[in-house]
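Section 3.1: Structural characterization of target chains.
Under the original work plan, the team committed to producing a structural model for every single-chain target entering the pipeline before any wet-lab resources were allocated. The record below documents one such target. The sequence was received from the expression subgroup and is listed exactly as submitted; it comprises 130 residues.
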Amino acid sequence: MPRAAEREDVEKTLRETKAMLEFILKAAQVGDWDLDLVSDTSRRSLRHDQCFGYQKPIPEAEWGIEVFSRHLHPDDRSRVVDSLRKAAKELLDWSSEFRVIGRTAAFTGSPRGAAFVGRSKLRPRGCWGS
């Protein structure tokens, strides 16, 4: 098979896989996200942002650990952020249950899971989760 045809097959499979993942996340009403720990920016789905009280996507540069922590209930904030930072430092899987103070309401968040990936100067590069 010529390289161009192989590439087309791979790209088609990738598009189909992405569409399936988006369908599953939408059906489960779950948001997904990636956090770049070096630049403290993230990529998030609209559903993720909606869980924090936003109706439109927030720009990537406007969401990092600090902004995330400001959305946490004050009684949960230090526990959640400390456990997130520890997991990043030690490259551990992370999950936490917490309450979110959104722009319009507060609700109890379901467990959020993350896996830390990559390293940059012996530090994790980022994490992703749902």
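Strands lie at 33-36, 41-44, 94-96, 99-101, 106-108, 112-120, 123-129.
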